[in-house]
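2024-03-11 09:14:02 INFO receiving multi-entity request
2024-03-11 09:14:02 INFO entity count = two
2024-03-11 09:14:03 INFO echoing inputs for audit
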Amino acid sequence: MRTSQLQITTTKESPADAEVISHQLMLRAGMIRRLAAGLYTWMPLGLRVLRKIENIIREEMNNAGAAELLMPAVQPSELWEESGRWGQFGPELLRFTDRHQRDYCMGPTHEEVITDIARRDLRSYKQLPVNYYQIQTKFRDEVRPRFGVMRSREFIMKDAYSFHASDESLQQTFDDMHQAYTNVFSRMHLQFRPVEADSGAIGGSGSKEFHVLADSGEDAIAYSTEGDYAANLEKAEAICNDVRADATQEMTIVDTPDTKTIQALVDNFNLPIEKTIKTLICHASEESDADLVALLVRGDHQLNEVKATNHPMVKTPLEFATDAEIRAAVGAGPGSLGPVNLAMPVIADRTVAVMSDFGAGANIEDKHYFGINWDRDVESPVVADLRNIEAGDPSPDGKGQLQIMRGIEVGHIFQLGTKYSEAMKATVLDENGKDRLMSMGCYGIGVTRVAAAAIEQNHDEKGIIWPMPIAPFQVAIVPINMKKSDSLRAAADTLYQELKQAGIDVLLDDRDSRAGVMFADMELIGIPLRVVLSDKGLDKGIVEFKGRTDSESTDVARDEIVSLINAKISG
RNA sequence: CGGGGCAUAGCGCAGCCUGGUAGCGCACCUGCUUUGGGAGCAGGGGGUCGCAGGUUCGAAUCCUGCUGCCCCGACCA
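2024-03-11 09:21:47 INFO inference complete, emitting structure
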């Protein structure tokens, strides 16, 4: 393609509302244009990237035995009523009514539609397993769309759904998808990590997220320095190998005016922070006898709200008690709370359970107990993993320590089990001629988000640095001063045709701009390879070659440039 | 949904406090010169100053309401 056809419009400055680097660069490079909040047009340059990402995904899905189909973006409410999600899904589900006053939604995901397909088309266990996928536009009415296409409302997703007669079969396909995703992101030359994830409201037993590693990522990932363990911070298990030490102090009650925070307690009373406890009061679950329940974590630790929510004694979703509720139940407010003489169930983090001689609020305003010991001063609590792991914690697999890095979630694979097949009665006949619910898995990749994540991971002060497999063009031809030289124009055209013949995605900059402008634009839009043509060089039979990340260009014989580019592209 | 901010040319901004009919840089058009890292000079086009009321002889500027957008938080199959 020629720049004159592509109409590239680049800018030096980025719009003031573009916060993250990928958003800025995509706008500056003319890849995307914003239409409204969370809605973007993919311009020709950007669409080329999307298509390359899609093709890689499509190839790997096909290789893994999945079959592509295409479902409607608009879905009738009836299916969502059946699954129960018409009521459960919040305002994120965009609902509307047609001329006959029937309710519809823009599909944020397609479990209902695919389960409807499966229950109609699949009759026998002999047809299983089946894995359907599509690459299609989704809509989620995000509360706060942001970061450009990283968190937009309309976006393109590859979503796959598998159906099985047995859990073993589901596990097999889950593993196959794990491998396919690994292949996909490896082929895109992205640094990524599959991590254990909380399966959230969607339920199911197994769940793994694929994260592209980038400092700007919204998620924190814990990984083992020695082993393979990696998990989303919200899921990463905090283990405690310590043993509770014997009590050496008597419990004393201490006046602690103006001491409402852990930091104040540490500063004012010279208490090590590892000897303090945070007491957080939240609402108890329906099954629980109590209204409220207390969660204890060590003073220097952070409560993990996902872990807390998942605890059977805690209300889902997690809901902290208000000041008034706490005062009514305890008689003291936040800042003076602790486990001693607390009239509600107590769940303690594993680390808290092995503490001794520690300090905590006395449940009396402006008083704390110091020298508290479990069993002697207060009944031993229910113990659970409640906290976020911290860098340096032991890895749950026993290999090395955990460290934390940032990631962008670009893929998620789930084992759903029978959640949807049960609600929607998706059954096949088994070997005995009996109805059997199909097990399901679902597997997503955020196609548009991958493009943004690739930029977050690969850019410099000049612009985007596309990994070769997803670059909009593999090589740019930049002729210098073509306007005055018909021979240079002819030479540029010839090389352009040769590269096209060789099956290479080539962009010829035929704009007749000044050299600096063309260089800057090709670097901004991130084309991996560049060939500069000039009369001066061609007279000597030479062209200049430069990779996007090379510091200097090198002279290459004109006769050898095509094979050199071929070699660079193939790796 | 709670808190904060912004809205003036395609983009980035000034002007507003102290009312007098809109300006700068980039981009765009024309001409000349220039031509290997975002050229120079000269000329030019483009804005109902987010919308609707109000105050005033006069409103981008002051007042009221609305809308949109952004940031932080909550939320995120």
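2024-03-11 09:21:48 INFO post-check: Chain A has a mean pLDDT of 92.
2024-03-11 09:21:48 INFO post-check: The longest helix of chain A spans residues 167-187.
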